[in-house]
Amino acid sequence: MGRGKIAIKRIENPTTRQVTFSKRRAGLLKKTHELSVLCDAQIGLIIFSSTGKLCQYCTEPFRMEQIIERRLKVTGTRIPEHDSREQIFNELAVLRKETRRLQLSMRRYTGEDLGSIPYDDLDQLEHELESSVNKVRDRKNELLQQQLDNLRRKERMLEEENSNMYRWIQEHRAALEYQQAAMEAKPAEEHHHQVLDHFPFLGDQQPSSVLQLATNSIPHQIHPYHHLQLAQPNLQDPNV
Q1: Which top CATH class is 14-75?
Q2: 59: exposed, middle or buried (Cβ count in 10 Å: 0-12, 13-18, 19+)
Q3: pLDDT digits (tens, 9 = 90+) for 13-24
Q4: pLDDT digits 0-9 by tens, 203-218
Q5: How far is it, in rounded angstroms, from Cα 67 to Cα 45?
Q6: CA–CA separation, 191 vs 101, rounded Å?
Q7: 75-99: buried (b, 16+ CB within 10 Å) or exposed (e) per residue?
Q8: pTM for the whole thing?
């Protein structure tokens, strides 16, 4: 049972259309190559798919440009040649015109060359400037708000550090006071040792305080039970 004829019309399904294109393109290229080899024909085939993809075939050893040029010679048609210098001059003229327009627009935005502007254009320019000023102010306020937020964040951080430091001082107050008292007592103790260093003693006679130093400084030759006797005056002495 043979296959039925396929209606030659556009395939609506994109997937089916792409599959059919791939199969028939391969068959067309095969038939073109066979015709070129069997009949010694110069063939140039150019195919563009629906997606814009290029597919071409050219009989070897020729190039596609040679095939196209031969076709133009045979048909007597020529591709019009444009003077590149004229095209460059035209592009420069367009650029100069656009530059002058932009310069004039910039001068108008700065308040210059307003004498030749009609009322409607001045009104439009005023609205544009007001809109620009509002945008600038909004951006300025946004930056100021960001700076204020940063300052508030730093203030909270400093307050938190201050609270932590105050809490630490309260927790270690006793230790700090003890350390301060020890530092204040240290100079007095050093002075005590300096006083004792001026009086050399031997063995167990080394005093432990200034009071003991004063007691030990009394000469041992004077017995505590010795009493002083007053001398009787000689009344016969002429000097008395």
Answers
A1: alpha beta
A2: buried
A3: 888 888 888 899
A4: 445 555 544 544 554 4
A5: 10
A6: 94
A7: eeeeeeeeeeeeeeeeeeeeeeeee
A8: 0.33
